[in-house]
Structure formats: C-alpha cells, structure tokens
C-alpha cells in the first residue's frame, strides 16, 4: 500500500447509504458507503460549509441537510444549489421580513462550489483514505 | 454547475419516483434529453425543476403542482392519456409515445 493512504475506519462502521465524518491528517473528511463502494469527500458543503455527513446519501449523490445542495461523491461536482425554503402564506412581522430580505440579498452572492474528493481503498476490512 | 451532470442526477431521482407509480421515461431519447435540459435551466433560475410545458403562476400552491414529476397531482388525466403533459414520462407499457393522443381532461371525461 502506498504511504499516502491512512487507515480511516472499519468497513462495518458504515452501513450502505451511510456516511461518517473522520479527521485525517488535519483534514475533515466524510466517508460514504454507496452500495458497498466507499468514497471520501470533503466534509464541508460547497454552499455554506455545513457538515455533509448530516445530510443524506442516495446512490452516488449526497444532499446537504442545510439547504439541500447536492454533490456527486465520485467527483465532488456540485449538482444543485440550495432549495428555497417554504414560508407559506404567513405574513411575517416587519422586522423579520426586513431581516430575511437582507439575508436574501446577501445570499444572491453565495455560490455553490464543487467539493474535494479523496482516493480510497479497502484492505483487510478497513477503508483507507489518501488525504 | 454542469448541465449534463445535473440532468443525470434528475434522471436518477425521477426514475425512483415514477417507477412505483407505473410510469417510465419516454423511450424518445431526444425528447427526454431536451425536456431534462429545460428542467435543469428552470431549476437554475427558480431552484425548483418545474414542468417545462406549464406556466409558473407565482402562486406557490399551484406552482407546487407542476414540480416534476407532477404525476401525483394530475394522476387521473395522465393515466387516461398514458403520458404526462410534456411527455417526459409515459406508462410503462408504452413503446411508441408519438402514437399517444394528447387529449384535454374534458375529452377523457374528467371535467
């Protein structure tokens, strides 16, 4: 095995469709079990830095729990930006409405960037990651 | 964001939803590709993949009924014509989508 790989977790620590955050070589990494194949991605969402292991993994697509931005865990490519929240028809207090308007103005400039991926390999029941 | 990658992602998610409802993607590959691309563009603009053939009315209640796949909201009509309005989805037994008549609801006894 190449020196660059670090033993991260046991394969039985993550069920298929699950994710787990680890810290390797000073980097925050999420290991994803996509149907028995393991992928490693940067922990922070490319939209607003939320921890991606709190989201959901469906096939090879991870969806962030915070604003539902989506990424391909095989390439790290951003597949979708945030989804707008549903405030319904409720009339908000003026100060809250003004605050949300200001947040909306700032959010216009927030871009969803692709995330970094890391090489993985499985050996002797352990997932190894090259951070 | 890359349009082709997003098209593949939408196809992946939609496939899981429409299958249990008795629908599949149209076998017309060119049409499927075109409609998915339109949805990616709508999603980039509105953050929601609306049906490409329906107007957005800016009435959330009504607009949510045209979020693709909108089959659950218009099930009776789609079942009667064996396709959805834009033609992205057809009944699983359909092999020639061009042979399906596009009938309005009243012509299939729904209004």
Mean model confidence by pLDDT of chain A: 92
Cα-to-Cα separation, first versus last residue of chain A = 14 Å
By DSSP (H or I, 4+ residues per run), the number of helices of chain B equals 4
What is the succession of H and E elements of chain B? HEHHHE
What is the number of E strands of chain A?
10
As laid out across the biggest beta sheet of chain A, the strand order is 1-10-9-4-3-2
Which structural class is indicated by helix and strand composition of chain A? mainly beta
Number of helices, counting only DSSP H or I runs of 4 residues or more of chain A? 1
Uncertain segments of chain A are none
Level-1 CATH class name of chain B: Alpha Beta
Considering the protein shown, what is the CATH homologous superfamily of chain B? Ferredoxin thioredoxin reductase catalytic beta subunit
Please give the largest β-sheet of chain A.
6 strands, antiparallel
Shape verdict of chain A: elongated
SSE layout:
The complex is a heterodimer of chains A (131) and B (111).
Chain A: E1 6-10, E2 19-24, E3 27-34, E4 37-42, E5 56-58, E6 61-63, E7 70-72, E8 78-80, H1 94-107, E9 117-123, E10 126-130
Antiparallel strand pairs in A: 1-10, 2-3, 3-4, 4-9, 5-6, 6-7, 7-8, 9-10
Chain B: H1 3-18, E1 23-25, H2 29-46, H3 60-63, H4 75-81, E2 89-91
Antiparallel strand pairs in B: 1-2
Helix pairs in contact in B: 1-2
Brief overview:
Chain A is mainly β. Chain A has one helix at residues 94-107, and strands at 6-10, 19-24, 27-34, 37-42, 56-58, 61-63, 70-72, 78-80, 117-123, 126-130.
Q: Which tags fit this structure?
A:
heterodimer, A: 131 residues, mainly beta, Rieske Iron-sulfur Protein, six-stranded antiparallel sheet, four-stranded antiparallel sheet, 1 helix, 10 strands, B: 111 residues, mainly alpha, Ferredoxin Thioredoxin Reductase, two-stranded antiparallel ribbon, 4 helices, 5% strand
């Amino acid at each position: 095995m190449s020196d660059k790989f670090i033993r991260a977790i046991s394969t039985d620590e993550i069920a298929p469709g699950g994710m787990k955050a680890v810290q390797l070589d000073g980097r925050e990494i999420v290991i994803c079990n996509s149907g028995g194949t393991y992928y490693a991605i940067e922990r922070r969402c490319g939209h607003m830095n939320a921890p991606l292991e709190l989201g959901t993994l469906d096939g090879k697509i991870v969806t962030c729990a915070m604003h539902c931005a989506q990424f391909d865990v095989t390439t790290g490519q951003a597949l979708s930006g945030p989804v707008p929240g549903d405030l319904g028809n409720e009339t908000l207090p003026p100060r809250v409405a003004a605050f949300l308007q200001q947040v909306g103005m700032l959010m216009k400039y927030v871009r969803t960037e692709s995330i970094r991926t890391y090489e993985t390999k499985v050996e002797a029941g352990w997932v190894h990651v090259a951070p | 964001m890359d349009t082709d990658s997003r098209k593949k992602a939408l196809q992946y998610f939609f496939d899981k939803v429409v299958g249990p409802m008795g629908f599949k993607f149209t076998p017309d590959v060119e049409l499927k590709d075109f409609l998915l691309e339109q949805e990616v563009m709508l999603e980039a603009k509105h953050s929601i993949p609306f049906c490409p053939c329906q107007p957005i009315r800016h009435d959330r209640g009504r607009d949510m009924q045209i979020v693709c796949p909108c089959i659950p909201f218009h099930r009776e009509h789609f079942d009667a014509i064996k396709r959805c309005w834009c033609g992205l989805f057809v009944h699983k037994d359909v092999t020639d989508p061009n042979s399906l008549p596009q009938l309005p609801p009243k012509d299939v006894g729904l209004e």
